[in-house]
């Protein structure tokens, strides 16, 4: 059994220094509250599809944002999973890392199923992996990796032995979205639950909050609603809704025995 912290943070497009500061504060707070792993949002340094990434994105693990996360993980002796925009030569990737408490990056994912509107900024992902940890095997995906029809990314992680899947996300709605008339989160519950039940694993998605001010989704709002689904497919934790709804949510996770699926005849 271990404690997972879901850090639903404000991310401001292009405000890399402020975003990194909030990430460090969330890591410290999660450690103080007894979490062994903390999950942070997608593209938390530059903001999802924010054009500032063309100038401000750094390398993994050598860039300043990744180095910040590694130092915070080491200082607070906690595992950290977070999304970053990665510069690799002339290309940018929507990436995520899993960092050990000694500050080493042990898993480096690049988003496989990016939305069409982001292809001008991010190169296609080229990897999928799991990592062995003291809490069991952990896999990492990013946001819309999780809702490809048939859920092949999450199911492949399950086949690779993942007992927990961590997913940095940036969930956005139109400016006029009404959460009373149209409660947010159905897409994610319906995407996570079948894989969680099939493999008996946990899936956590953590979204940022705040207005989207630039890029193809300018004018939308990121509204949190971070979600943890248990091995029976039921939601265990759901974060609050709202563009100012920062939250640190903790949940106990008990990893069961590995269960691989065969979907064929």
Task: Describe this structure as you would to a colleague.
This protein has one domain: Carbon-nitrogen hydrolase (Nitrilase/N-carbamoyl-D-aminoacid amidohydrolase, 4-Layer Sandwich), CATH 3.60.110.10. The chain is built from five helices and 15 strands. The protein has helices at residues 16-32, 53-56, 64-76, 152-159, 186-199; strands at 2-8, 37-39, 79-88, 91-99, 105-110, 130-133, 136-140, 164-169, 172-173, 202-207, 209-211, 221-223, 227-229, 235-238, 247-253. A six-stranded mixed β-sheet has the order 5-4-3-2-1-15. Strands 6-7-8-10-13-14 form a six-stranded mixed β-sheet, covered by helices on one side. The radius of gyration is 17 Å and the shape is globular.
Structural descriptors:
265 residues, alpha/beta, Nitrilase/N-carbamoyl-D-aminoacid amidohydrolase, six-stranded mixed beta sheet, 15 strands
For this structure, the CATH topology is: Nitrilase/N-carbamoyl-D-aminoacid amidohydrolase
What is the first-to-last residue Cα distance? 35 Å
Provide the domain count.
Answer: 1
β-strand number: 15
Number of helices: 5
> Taking all residues together, what is the mean pLDDT?
96
Q: Going by CATH, what is the homologous superfamily? A: Carbon-nitrogen hydrolase
Strand order of the largest sheet: 5-4-3-2-1-15
Percentage of residues in helical conformation: 10-25%
How does CATH name the architecture?
A: 4-Layer Sandwich
* Assembly type: single chain
The stretches of 5 or more residues where confidence is low (pLDDT under 50) are none
Q: Give the SSE order as H and E letters.
A: EHEHHEEEEEHEEHEEEEEE
